[in-house]
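Write out this protein's structure.
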Amino acid sequence: MDRISAKQSRGFTLIELLVVIAIIAILAALLFPVFGRVRESVRQSTCMTNLASIYKDVGLYREDNGKYPPILMCNPYVANTTPQVKYAGVGTPLDAGSVQNRPFNLASGQKYDQDVGIFQCPDNQANNRTKVFQGAVYPPGVPLTGNAIDPTTTQPFWYYNFDSYDTGTQINSTGTANPGVVELHYSLDWTGVTGASDPQNQLKYPNPPKDKTVITWCNYHISTAHTDQIIVLLLNGSAKATHYSKFAYKSAVEPNGPLYFIP
């Protein structure tokens, strides 16, 4: 009787515990990447929803004003000023949601979208809506180079960090982010010239081809989530997850980017 009781109460051996741990580790290694891909798929879907809202607002703005907006969200303004003053490095930046002079929420009464949350990609980890930076470089492959300049000050523009669609991380030809480089992703003019030989798929022109004109794109799915996808929003309203090799700049022979993207 004692022998049976002792047999029933014996615990796991060290070998058995190690086998169980090994099985759990193998299952975790198999399942965690799957869960990560599912979460990233949801974040990409949210990003595309944001871009769909931006596309709608861009169209409404053009209908009312006869041109496309100069910026998608807004440049920073100074807190505690009346009237509000554009931020130029002095004072405290105003919370982006309180800026009156936003193209999609103008004080004049044109209110297409009052939620600045649509301008943050879920993979952009900059959540503070008062943090700003100065100087977004033009993407490689377009004739304009250097920082995008504010013509009213001849200084580089200031932008909100969480704004994911006016600017974004820069991705190189190998599909990785260039550390510390933020590039312009929304611009009416990529060339600085006009004429018959100038690419017409730019928002500065009255009727750019909708299936070839890029409104903006999002690189955070590569720089943060380490996927191989850039989401590109076209003027025809499509927001496509695109392999970086089709959009990121390669060389002068294969420039890609906003002027040369083939959907």
